[in-house]
Amino acid sequence: xxxxxxxxxxxxxxxxxxxxxxxxxxxxxxxxxxxxxxxxxxxxxxxxxxxxxxxxxxxxxxxxxxxxxxxxxxxxxxxxxxxxxxxxxxxxxxxxxxxxxxxxxxxxxxxxxxxxxxxxxxxxxxxxxxxxxxxxxxxxxxxxxxxxxxxxxxxxxxxxxxxxxxxxxxxxxxxxxxxxxxxxxxxxxxxxxxxxxxxxxxxxxxxxxxxxxxxxxxxxxxxxxxxxxxxxxxxxxxxxxxxxxxxxxxxxxxxxxxxxxxxxxxxxxxxxxxxxxxxxxxxxxxxxxxxxxxxxxxxxxxxxxxxxxxxxxxxxxxxxxxxxxxxxxxxxxxxxxxxxxxxxxxxxxxxxxxxxxxxxxxxxxxxxxxxxxxxxxxxxxxxxxxxxxxxxxxxxxxxxx
Length: 401
Fold this sequence. Notes:
Strand order of the largest sheet: 1-2-3-6-7-10-11-12
Number of strands: 12
Radius of gyration: 20 Å
Mean pLDDT: 85
Strand content: 15-25%
CATH topology: TIM Barrel
Largest sheet: 8 strands, parallel, barrel
CATH class: Alpha Beta
Shape: globular
Distance between the termini: 54 Å
CATH superfamily: Glycosidases
């Protein structure tokens, strides 16, 4: 079913005045994050709504929809790296780990779910949720909750890429060079489209009791992390030539939580890193957004969970993530209602010392890499050890190595 929203398909050649007016009309970047005007159907023609009960419609953190805690299988993300559609989530990788994990990440690409302007196809996501639901039925005493991660970046639909301006080619990759062509995620047109999509996504799935967390991926590019922009010289040159600036990235990040304002019953997890500028990492800006995340629920916004995807034993002392870990500790200590915290390990490996760091920083959940593509991921850890870590995270107790 076509969804009407505040998007008038301006050409990328339209002047900044016009795009600015349209952006304001849609409420992007405003404090109240007004939803784009018009009507929406929460489900496409012929598709059934998620299985919910009457009580599900009001289930939230305070009303019974529990936060997602424990170890989380972060799922296979090869599809995003390859620019391909995500396959249906396969929870069978956790058959031998029942009770050692509290949840699983369902990864999807924006292009899969909104292939045409205003037309959603929820079938890929519904199939993945059905797979987790089936697994839970087979393991009723140790069910999994779902964290939903929708990749934007170079998973944006082609129609969004075209509307945001001529596509830009960037380079990324820590171990091997990857070249990707993508939309201008910092522009009014791109941000407006993403905001509208998130509103439609929340309208359909916010009250679904299986989905217990949603990952913030606004403003993301090479990964699902909003603050990570490739620092390769060729990429920065291409981005600047396309109109990207640090200030525009900051403006996008300042509006990220408003994109998720429709998620009123579900936690949203936000991965923080110091934003890299020409003069080095800007920890002060990141800390300000972290503070806004911590205060979001109390001020009427989404229930925002502080996080970082570079968890390691050394992370609190490394130049990059150290300010994030320090601020997490400070915000939690401030009380009396401290924010929730999550982490994701920096790579496929995981060790007790890294998990101890997570527990020291009050994490309720940690995403671990599954076995894939030649690395063992969490399969390298004994099940009993994983179960112990899982219990410690749920109970918020220290992890001793």
